[in-house]
Amino acid sequence: MIIIGLMSGTSVDGIDAAIVNIEGQGLDLKVDLLVGQTFPYSPSLREEILQVCAGKPLSMEELSKLDNAIASEFAQAVTSIIPDDLKVDLIGSHGQTVYHQPPQKNQLGYTLQLGRGDLISYLTGINTVSNFRVADIALGGQGAPLVSKIDVCLYRHPHHHRCLQNIGGIGNATYLPSSHTPQWQEKIMGWDTGPGNVLIDLAVQELTNNQQKFDFNGEWSRQGKPCQVLVKKWLNQDFFKQKPPKSTGRELFSPHYLQQCLKDAQTYNLSSADCLATLTELTVASIADSYHRFLPSPPHEVVLAGGGSRNSYLKERLQAHLPHSRLLNSDDLGISSEFKEAIAFAILAYWHINNFPGNLPQVTGAKKEVILGQHYLSSR
């Protein structure tokens, strides 16, 4: 089956579109990436999304217009990426998260992804599955991370204990014990590790008056020296100590959060490069700290994906924190690190129409497995 997976993450860089061919059943799938491309948001739409993520209030009319605008750009990505001679059977669209609230005591969580699937289906003429997180949340789950079951499908290994570490705006991890470990599937874990690129990106934008959007390859951070005293202080934040299941987003690691970090940096007279190096150190230290806190032993391999996997300075610092683990990029295993999450939502759409549950309750905290997503049939 030919499926297009669509994903825009917490970095709000643009829409990742992946055309994949999927065959098989359940966890035993053959997944081939045929085409992958990223379509940047228009600058005005990206800025509006970021403002909403930062807490800008909207009227219902404004919300509906934003929902439609995002769906229209997702649909345009679909029509732009499909070769003339290819018939696509299905779309799996994550949409754009603008708000995420993990469940509280005696209260369900809430999550909102804009980019309505019914409009994508209408505009493209292709059946579309979207709104994947809400079914898990309705069962008491976090609704995140949802990639963990895909990680089981694509990355399990008979001998190696692996951590699949995505570093997008927010970092998330899946721990996969060796599949020869007794009852290995019951020992799978997953959680959001904390900030990925979000604070680094926000800092670069502030320090350059929005002339730069991110620290390319960590070149600016590499010129500085991380302040370990500050990193240790920041790691005392409650989220890092919280045991999985757990998830987070821009609601916590926000522009306001960054301002407090920058204020702390001034106390230590850090240069701009020192500040970026220290924020990068927070990302890698939070990943490593979570492994030390929550895993039975260091993983044999850490497989990286997402934008952070292309930051050589960040990777060097992560290796320094995880000296006993081998760092790999997902590409090394034949799965695109750039389009991994778009591929994941293509798989979740495939599982939906095949009535196969897409969540892992021990990862999300949901009461049971459930079919994820809402299916919109094309009217064409």
From TrEMBL:
Annotated keywords: ATP-binding, Carbohydrate metabolism, Kinase, Nucleotide-binding, Transferase
CDD domains, alphabetized: ASKHA_NBD_ANMK
Any GO molecular function: ATP binding
Pathway(s) this gene product operates in, as recorded in its UniProt entry: Amino-sugar metabolism; 1,6-anhydro-N-acetylmuramate degradation; Cell wall biogenesis; peptidoglycan recycling
GO biological process: one example: amino sugar metabolic process
Catalyzed reactions per annotation: 1,6-anhydro-N-acetyl-beta-muramate + ATP + H2O = N-acetyl-D-muramate 6-phosphate + ADP + H(+)
One Pfam family cited in the UniProt record for this chain: AnmK
EC number: 2.7.1.170
Binding site for ATP: 9-16
InterPro entries according to UniProt: Anhydro_N_Ac-Mur_kinase (IPR005338), ATPase_NBD (IPR043129)
Leading EC class: transferase
Similarity comment text for this entry: Belongs to the anhydro-N-acetylmuramic acid kinase family.
HAMAP family for this protein: AnhMurNAc_kinase
Protein purpose: Catalyzes the specific phosphorylation of 1,6-anhydro-N-acetylmuramic acid (anhMurNAc) with the simultaneous cleavage of the 1,6-anhydro ring, generating MurNAc-6-P. Is required for the utilization of anhMurNAc either imported from the medium or derived from its own cell wall murein, and thus plays a role in cell wall recycling.
Stated name of the protein: Anhydro-N-acetylmuramic acid kinase
Organism for this UniProt entry: Cyanobacterium aponinum (strain PCC 10605)
Gene (name only): anmK
